[in-house]
Amino acid sequence: VSSFKLYDLDASKQSDLIRFIFQFVGVPLKEKKFTTDEWEKAKSEFPFDQLPMLRINHQLKVYYLDPILRYLAREFHLYG
Asked: Assign residue 31 a region: left if phi > 0, alpha if psi is -120 to 50, beta otherwise?
């Protein structure tokens, strides 16, 4: 069973589609939402200085919204 954790800014709405996919397929999703100040301190730990980032099984990391959506579509067999 895979574990998923989504990292994003607290005020960002761009990850709503990611959350919707997890809710639709019934898979739990953990989240870490950064405030702007927290993100400024933490972003040097992220290779691309970008959010959202999805961590899978504490290992694989997928960055940027579109690649995350493509990964989830493959993972959960949502391609048409």
From this structure: beta
- Which three-class secondary structure state does DSSP give residue 19? helix
Contacts of 69 (CB under 8 A, 6+ apart): 17, 18, 21
CA distance linking residue 68 with residue 55, whole number of Å: 10
Q: How far apart are CA 18 and CA 22, in angstroms?
A: 7
Q: What pairs with residue 56 in β-bridges?
A: 4, 60
**Does the predicted model carry a pTM greater than 0.70?**
yes
Q: In what order do the strands lie in the sheet with 60-63?
A: 30-34, 4-9, 53-56, 60-63
Average pLDDT, the chain: 93
- What is the mean pLDDT of the segment spanning 30-39? 94
Question: Residue type at 8?
Answer: D
Task: Specify whether the CB–CB gap between 22 and 28 falls below 8 A.
Answer: yes
